[in-house]
Structures are given as structure tokens and as C-alpha cells.
Amino acid sequence: MHGTQSHQAIHECGRGELAVPQAMAIPVVGMELSDIRSALGPAEPAFRAQQIYDAVYRKRVENWDAISNLPKSLRARLADELPLGLPDVEKRYMSADGTVRYLLRLGDGKTVETVWMPEGDRATICISSQVGCAVDCKFCLTARMGLERNLTAGEIVGQVLLAAGTAPVDRLNIVMMGQGEPLLNLASVIKATRLLTDPEGMGISPRRITLSTAGIVPKIAELGREPVRPKLAISLNASYEDQRRDLMPITRKYHLKDLIEACRAYPLRTWEKLTFEYVLLKGFNDNDADARRVVQLLAHLNCKVNLIALNPGPDIPFETPDPARVANFQAIIRRSVPCLIRKPRGLDVFAACGQLKRMELVTIGS
Ligand code: SAH
């Protein structure tokens, strides 16, 4: 995280030097314009910071040499003293359906995953918000690794920069549905959202960014108070309290009725609907009565439902329902609430929902 101490180090630097010694240098990806100005120090004119900000976030350069409008001497100093900080690609798995799953290595050697899912001339990038996850949902493989740490804003933005390459922003959707629970790393997620949406920088519309949560009730209200925030999706996954508690232990702390109440109180923007995600588990939460209860739960909310048939995994104690069951469930919900079935992407490279980190559990060819 970019702590106060590090910022202090920046301000205490002498004229003409880059602000921080290499050993504690903060990566530029994740910095706001004012941070870059401080890191450059007072000897550089202010427009240099602007050029760097533009190059990193709008032009999406991969190294300092690519910023051709900077003097060579400054480029050399940057290369020596200030890391750009894009994550390293440890592995890249290509699916037959065009999905690309990246295993990215972070500054401290930990790895996270990012998934690129093309669809026609558009693409969705699924990013992680934490290394691992503490929420322990019983159908999700990421849960098996527990939580290792939060990602910084720079590490969140870096995933988008890396996966997006030069793709135009009006063709991109970003979903925070990779590893981790974004509402348990809210400060970094919000800082990342500001950087992703800044019209002077990456310029991705907040309408194109979706944050998905397991239901951290007090953080939903906190998110609603943020002026710049993604759209909100809630992983519902069950139709009543006890059923949800068996699947998502977080329900013990944040009850289903309080979750629905937080959704009711959530300040939607004029163009916005809530999304509820529902993982269908054969014989557990997929019968007609479940579908009717879901409709009742969501009756007074401005929302839509995305159904996902379970992507199975080793030691996941559930099975995938038949397509006909999924279609029936959808038909019941659809009478009252818009409802789509999300098709799995990148199954052959374990890029689909709930599969991230599977690579560490099984070996496949790359
Ligand atoms: N922690 C956040 C975001 C990560 S999970 C959340 O809970 O929403 C992203 C989505 O993948 C969630 O809707 C989750 O319910 C779903 N998911 C997890 N494991 C899955 C699996 N094995 N099959 C299908 N969807 C799964």
C-alpha cells in the first residue's frame, strides 16, 4: 500500500534527485498525477508529470523508452530510479474460445490471475482484488488458498493495463470478479476505480466497471457514498438464510435479510441496476421453489439476475445442474426479473468463475 510514510519520503527528497531510492521506490502505475509530480521532484517542470501520467494511463506504454516526448536523460533516470510497475506475466494460457488467462507475478513474488474474454469486437477483463480470499465460499477454489494479502491500487490497475494492451476503452468491460473480495479491500479498489475512470487517464466509464461482492453489508453502504464507484453486483447464490449460510459462511455475520436491506437502501444512479449472481448447484439451490423464493427476495429491487451453472473443481462438493434445469430456473425468474445465463469462458484453461488458483492444484499444459 502507498502509506503515509512513503509519501513523506517523497517530500523530503532533495532538488534534482528522483524522490525515492530504488530500494523503496513506489511503482508509478497506481500513482495519481500529484504523486508523479512529487516523485519527480521540484527540478522537473510540472508538465513532465502530465506527460508521464498520459503515457502510462492513456497511451499505456510498457516501458519508459516508449515515451518519446521525454528527454533521453529523463527517460534514463526514470529507468534507473522509478519502476513503472506493471505486473510481470509469469504464464499466459490461451483457451480455444479466445479467452486468455494470465498468471501475473507481483513485486513481492506473489501471483494473481487476470482473465481476458473477447466477444466480437469487445472484451471483458476479469481482475483480482486480493491475493487469495478469506470469504471461504464452499463452491469456489480460490477459497482453498485463504487470504494472502490485499492488492494495491497499482496492482489492480496494472492488471487492466496489461490485459487491455492498446484495445479502445469504449470496447472494454472490467469486472472485479477474480480472486478476492473487493469490499474487503475497498480503499485500494476505490483508488483504482478513480484511476481507471479518470478522463485525463484511462477514461473507462464507471458504467463499464462492475464490482462483485459476497455481501459485506456495511461496506455496501460505504461504497454507495463514494462519488466515483463501479456498478454493484451481489453474489446471492441461495434463496434463504440457512441455505446461504451453508454455502457462504459470511452469511453468519451478514444475514441475508440485512444484505437485501442494504441493497434496497443502495443509492443507484439513474442508469444503474443491481446485478444478482446466482451459482446453480445441482439438487442444492436449483429447484423451482428456490427460483420463486429468489423472485420474492428481489421483488422490490431495481435489478437483474445472472445465473451461472457451477464450474466444478477438485474437492468441490457440488455438481453442475443439467442445462434443462438451468433453463427452467431462468424461466421462473424471468417472469418477474430480467435474467440471463452466463456462459462459462476459458473452461479448458481453468479461467472460468471459481476456478482461479486451480493451476496451483492441478497441472495442465501451457
Ligand atoms: N468475492 C466476490 C468476487 C469473486 S467471485 C464475490 O463473491 O462476488 C466472482 C463470482 O464467481 C461470484 O458470483 C461467485 O459466486 C462465482 N463463483 C465462484 N465460484 C464459482 C464456481 N465454482 N462456479 C461458478 N461460479 C462461481
Structure notes:
By secondary structure, the chain is of the alpha/beta class. Helix content is 30%, strand content 18%. It has eleven helices and twelve strands. Strand 7, helix 6 (186-197) and strand 8 form a beta-alpha-beta unit. Helix 5 crosses helix 6 (186-197), helix 7 (217-224) runs parallel beside helix 9 (256-265) and helix 10 packs parallel to helix 11. Residues 1-17, 19-23 and 360-366 have low confidence and may be disordered. The structure holds S-adenosyl-L-homocysteine. S-adenosyl-L-homocysteine (SAH) binds next to strand 8 and strand 10.
Order of helices and strands: HHHHEEEEEEHEHEHEHHEHEHE
Between the first and last Cα atoms, what is the distance in angstroms?
32 Å
* Rg of Cα set: 22 Å
Order of strands in the sheet with most strands: 1-2-3-4-7-8-9-10-11-12
The biggest beta sheet reads: 10 strands, mixed
Any low-confidence stretches, pLDDT <50, length ≥5?
1-17, 19-23, 360-366
In brief, what are we looking at here?
The protein is an alpha/beta fold.
Topology:
Layout: H1 4-11, H2 33-40, H3 46-58, H4 72-81, E1 88-94, E2 100-105, E3 111-119, E4 122-126, E5 130-132, E6 147-150, H5 153-164, E7 172-176, H6 186-197, E8 209-213, H7 217-224, E9 231-235, H8 241-247, H9 256-265, E10 274-280, H10 288-297, E11 303-309, H11 323-334, E12 339-341
Parallel strand pairs: 4-7, 7-8, 8-9, 9-10, 10-11, 11-12
Antiparallel strand pairs: 1-2, 2-3, 3-4, 5-6
Helix pairs in contact: 2-3, 5-6, 7-9, 10-11
Bound molecules: S-adenosyl-L-homocysteine.
